[in-house]
From TrEMBL:
Pfam families: Nitroreductase. Keywords: Oxidoreductase. One of its GO terms (molecular function) is oxidoreductase activity. The keyword Acetylation does not apply. It comes from freshwater metagenome. Residues 16-70, 76-157 form the Nitroreductase domain. Belongs to the nitroreductase family. This is Unannotated protein. SUPFAM superfamilies: FMN-dependent nitroreductase-like.
Length: 193
């Protein structure tokens, strides 16, 4: 099943091919060596004043870190994400006393984008999500109070859509769509409301 984006102009294949599945192959595991290139790509992502105000927690299926992370997932994420080979939690420094920290969420987003593109280039799939208990994760892992736990990402090898329940399977196999480019990029003032 091809999940390539139907782009309006050619883009890098790794970007056109990247998508966020919910079905992961539970027969295949991951190690830190598998994710090191993706973390290295995140490390070299753009950073305001080179502050590098992002950090990651990672757990691998079968270890205590992964178990603690997955017990704090919510909604549908709790049904499919535990099948991934790894869970990555992204956080950023949220210290209003330090100059430039208002851009920290943006920089974390760039780091996660670099992570996900590199992982995809390496044959892995990443599904980022917001459905988890940030406070419980922060407390469990003693995250400093100046850091904001922000995003969870399931990482692994692609599984078959048939492994999902009917509702998630429909979402997994639905056509990929995006708003048209001319409704996204403007060269003039926004239209009047």
């Amino acid at each position: 099943m091809s999940r390539n984006a139907d782009t309006s102009t050619p883009i890098l294949p790794v970007l056109a091919e990247r998508w966020s599945p919910r079905s992961f192959d539970t027969s295949r595991s991951l190690t830190m060596a598998d994710l090191t290139p993706a973390f290295e790509a995140a490390r070299w992502s753009p950073s305001l004043s080179n502050l590098q105000e992002w950090r990651f927690l990672v757990g691998f299926r079968g270890d205590a870190t992964f178990a603690a992370m997955t017990e704090h997932l919510s909604g549908w994420n709790a049904s499919w994400a535990p099948n991934a080979g790894a869970i990555v939690i992204g956080m950023y420094e949220d210290d209003p006393e330090n100059r430039g920290r208002e851009y920290a969420p943006y920089d974390l987003g760039q780091a996660m984008a670099h992570f996900s593109v590199q992982a995809h280039a390496d044959g892995l799939f990443v599904h980022q999500a917001a459905g988890f208990d940030r406070d419980a994760i922060a407390a469990h892992f003693n995250v400093p109070t100046t850091w904001k736990v922000f995003v969870v990402a399931a990482v692994g090898h692609l599984g078959a859509p048939e492994l999902l329940d009917e509702t998630l399977r429909a979402r997994e196999t639905a056509p990929r769509v995006r708003r048209p480019l001319d409704e996204t990029v403007f060269t003039h003032p926004f239209p009047a409301a």
